Amino acid sequence: MALSRVVVGLTIFVIVALVTIIPFAQAQDFAPAPAPASDGTTIDQGIAYVLMLLALVLTYLIHPMDASAYTFF
User: Fold this and answer.
1) pLDDT band for position 66 (50/70/90)?
2) pLDDT tens per residue across span 24-59
3) C-alpha torsion sign, points 43, 47, 49, 50
4) pTM of the model
5) CA atoms within 13 A of residue 11's CA, in its CB half-sphere
6) Predicted confidence band at 7 (pLDDT cuts at 50, 70, 90)?
7) Which has the closest alpha carbon to 44: 52, 34, 54?
8) How far does CA 39 lie from the centroid of its chain?
9) Taking Cα atoms as reference points, which of 36, 60, 56 lies closest to residue 48?
10) How large is the C-alpha radius of gyration of the chain?
11) Distance between start and end Cα atoms, the chain
């Protein structure tokens, strides 16, 4: 008789514990995907900066050679 009371009490405790815990376990949802770090405009801007720097360097390298061919005075 005492053993059945323990089994019934333990069963009720487990049922109450599961009814309390299961809704919290189901409430979790997947996190949304992170936003993309780059949409391509950053890469395009980086390429443009490199090309402008290359044009600037080439201009300064070619200009002295071109300017030495002229005698102004």
Assistant:
1) low
2) 666 566 778 887 777 788 889 999 999 999 999 988
3) positive
4) 0.41
5) 6
6) confident
7) 52
8) 12
9) 56
10) 38
11) 124
Instruction: Tell me the backbone φ, ψ of residue 17, rounded to 5 degrees.
Output: -65, -45
Length in residues, the chain: 73
Backbone angles phi, psi at 11, to 5 degrees: -65, -45
Q: Which of 66, 46, 68 is nearest to 58 (CA)?
A: 66
Where do we find the tokens 């201009």? 59
- Locate 9 and state its tokens: 């009490």
**DSSP 8-class letter at 53:** H
